[in-house]
Amino acid sequence: MLGGVPAELSVNSYEDPAYPGRCVIDIPSSVVLLTAGQAFKLPNLDCTTIFCISDGWGTIFTCEKQEPPDDCRFSEPLNPDAFYPECCKRRVVCD
């Protein structure tokens, strides 16, 4: 059985006047430039993806914290290196 994939999300401004219309993601090793419709998985945060909406605005998605059913637990993520929401999927294991 697979766990559901509800999201925690927020809309943020990633604009930079030097790159009009782009989402600019400044990470320690480089600067990532996204156009509308592109996504970037943040390397230092588990299952966190930024989707560039347009004009420097983006939505950041990550897996919602969930509690498993009573007497059950979640497995480790099935595909932790995938983009959101695939990286959130886990099995429900009941004893």
TrEMBL record:
Highest taxon of source: Eukaryota
Entry GO CC: extracellular region
Domain Single: from-to ranges: 23-94
Pfam families referenced in this protein's UniProt entry, alphabetically: SVWC (PF15430)
Keywords: Secreted
Keyword Secreted appears in the UniProt entry: yes
Keyword S-adenosyl-L-methionine applies: no
Subcellular location: Secreted
InterPro entries: SVWC_dom
UniProt-recorded name of the protein: Single domain-containing protein
